[in-house]
Amino acid sequence: MKTFLIAALASVAALASVPASAAEIAVIVKTVNSTYWQNVQKGADAAIKKAGGDYTLTFQGPASESAIADEVNMVENAVNRKVAGIVLAPSDPDALVPAVKKAWEAHIPVIVIDSQLAKGADKYYQSFLSTDNKKAGELCAKALIDKVGTTGKIAVMSYVAGAGSEIGRVGGFTDYIKAHSKLEIVGPFYSQSQMATALNQTTDMLAANPDLKGIFGANEPTAIGMGRALVQSGRAGKVVAVGFDGNTDLQGFVKDGTLQAIAVQGSYQMGEKGIETLMKVLKKEKVEKFVDTGVVLVTKDNIDKPEAKNVLY
């Protein structure tokens, strides 16, 4: 690690004489078609302005979170452009490793945000900034148990199977449910982070399970689709629902009682701290290997309070 850090910093110093590309910081996320990732961009933009200097920021992501090959290409292209550094939210823990390794071999520092890369890949990046997804999943499970009790049937509406955040989040949720209740879990169903898919899956699942007591939507598009299905089926407020992330649609569902709670990540903070951490690496300053960017459980009781407003978007 020390050897790489020295090499990376030497490389950055050497690249400083190269005009345009050396000053580019590439932020590459899972998709640009989500307010969650757009909020990450806002944080990154703010941090790059604050940093000053000659750095410019580019922001990219595929059309959808399931377009993993497109994201791999974006990272490889950034390496080929000889960018000064990369902030990356990997859509797949395994598929992105070779591309991140190429950055490491090219002495380009990488800060990983939101989702973990596969075990053993930590030598290829300098820091990982994320919600502790396992703890966040447990928080959602506890909120659901508090409302539905410890017996009956609940459903899990998930997004992309195998994504690092999904493994921690849904794993933490289901493990907590199994350890602290006798609730039967239906699913998980995978929406591929497509709202329309989540809506259709939830509609079908609700029709097949008239006795359902609770439901968990594990990311923004999935939770929105889930909420809309509850409204359209007339089950809003009758089935206890907990979602994840905090855009205006989900805030509306909390306010009108469709969702009882949403777990909201510090997405703005992820973008902001991702850039700040990369800048520290470029200045040869020490950085932590893992930074927990936090999560807040937002309910009707606290949605207008500062703790919630600081993370909602």
Structure description:
The chain has 313 residues and is of the alpha/beta class. It has two domains: 2-131 and 266-294, Response regulator (Rossmann fold); 133-265, Rossmann fold. It is built from eleven helices and twelve strands. Strands 2-1-3-4-5-11 form a six-stranded parallel β-sheet, sandwiched between helices. The chain has a six-stranded mixed β-sheet with strand order 7-6-8-9-10-12, sandwiched between helices. One of its GO terms (molecular function) is carbohydrate binding. InterPro entries: Peripla_BP_I, SBP_2_dom. This is LacI family transcriptional regulator.
Any idea how many domains? 2
CATH topology of the largest domain: Rossmann fold
Widest sheet: strand ordering: 2-1-3-4-5-11
What value does the Rg take, in angstroms?
20 Å
CATH superfamily of the largest domain: Response regulator
CATH class of the largest domain: Alpha Beta
CATH architecture of the largest domain: 3-Layer(aba) Sandwich
Q: What percent of residues adopt helix (DSSP H or I)?
A: 40-55%
Overall residue-averaged pLDDT value: 92
Strand content: 15-25%
InterPro entries: Peripla_BP_I (IPR028082), SBP_2_dom (IPR025997)
GO molecular function: carbohydrate binding
Protein name: LacI family transcriptional regulator
Pfam families: Peripla_BP_4
